[in-house]
Amino acid sequence: MKKLICLMLSAVLVLGLLCSCSRNVYPLSSTQIMMDTVVSVTIYDGDDGVLTGAMQLCKRYENLLSKTVPGSDVYKINHANGQPVTVADDTAELLSIALDISKKSGGAFDPTVLPLVELWDVNNATAAPDDAKVKAALTSVGYQNILLDGNVVTVKNGAGLDLGGIAKGFIADKLTAYLKENGIKSAIINLGGNTVLVGGKNGGDFSVGVQKPFGKQNELCATVMLRDKTAVTSGTYQRYFEQNGRLYHHIIDPKTGYPTDNGLDAVTVVTDSSAVADGLSTACLILGLEKGKALAKTYGAELIFVDKNGKLTVTDGLVFDKNGKENILKLKE
Ligand code: ADP
Ligand code: MG
Questions:
Q1: Do the domain assignments include residue 24?
Q2: pTM for the whole thing?
Q3: Considering the domain boundaries, does residue 20 fall inside one?
Q4: Measuring CA to CA, which residue among 252, 205, 216, 190 is closest to residue 34?
Q5: Are residues 294 and 218 in the same domain?
Q6: Does the Cβ of 110 fall within 6 Å of ligand 1?
Q7: pLDDT tens digits, one per residue of 72-130
Q8: Is the shortest distance between the CB of 120 and ligand 1 below 6 Å?
Q9: CATH for 272
Q10: Which of 251, 255, 276 has most ligand 1 atoms within 8 Å of its beta carbon, as the pocket-test mutant?
Q11: Where is 45: in which H helix or E strand?
Q12: Pocket lining: 193 vs ligand 1, CB cutoff 6 Å
């Protein structure tokens, strides 16, 4: 974990240096570590004040949705001992999206994975937990344990909330709305790999890289040409530890209690809502190709799967560029 934070900080420093040299020349960019990841907003019009406002807004949402910030809505829910908790409109909105994806994914996406996430603790662990502990943690996992009635949240059966699989996407949507309200026509929001493209770039599309799982830094396996869309990736390569040559990553199958292991290394979701894309990316990595495709269809989302052999599979709405550049994808017109 220390290594990860060091890498993030050096990325921030490099970006900071780049930004300080080009303050009055577009793009303008701001990068900070928040929500345990690198948050950056880059604008191609507008001014610095908008960037400052975007970062403040991001911090506000972190303080509302983080499970570790005392006083956040999620913290209050997790410490309420089953009593009803009144939450902010934003939290209720996010929970409603999360529960919808939970239902439609048959529980592959499940925001009550908290005890499993804490048990596996992949950022710090060096060994897999005992199977008995996994089974014990599973007993309070189940999205049906979350009752949402307007702004009132009640949790049954000792369950706990972890919105790590969807909150970044939701916050990216809120930042998008904020930038648009402030007149920004062209921007990239990136919350630890949750990307939103506001408008296009110089009249064309933005190109969004799909990272090669376990590749070198910045090595891509595909590029997607997009504007006014979001692209969100979940991957086994993002946070993990190894024990006896086996890799244990941070996306847990709520049916088994173990990191999902189905031959896929990454799924990228392309759609309009980043909250939906975030939830779907986690769900589809667990569901695999066929069930993942069916789920994405119900949300009108497109998928790029990368399997353990590096093979790409894409849904019908995406096409490979015909000009001999096979790893460049675009949305069908
Ligand atoms: P990242 O946050 O690294 O971009 P994801 O969006 O896929 O990747 O979210 C992974 C995070 O979601 C985990 O770190 C954990 O907090 C939480 N999580 C793990 N498994 C699940 C699951 N099955 N359903 C919902 N959330 C999950
Ligand atoms: Mg996700």
A1: no
A2: 0.93
A3: no
A4: 190
A5: yes
A6: yes
A7: 999 999 999 999 999 999 999 999 999 999 999 999 999 999 999 999 999 999 999 99
A8: no
A9: 3.10.520.10
A10: 251
A11: none
A12: yes
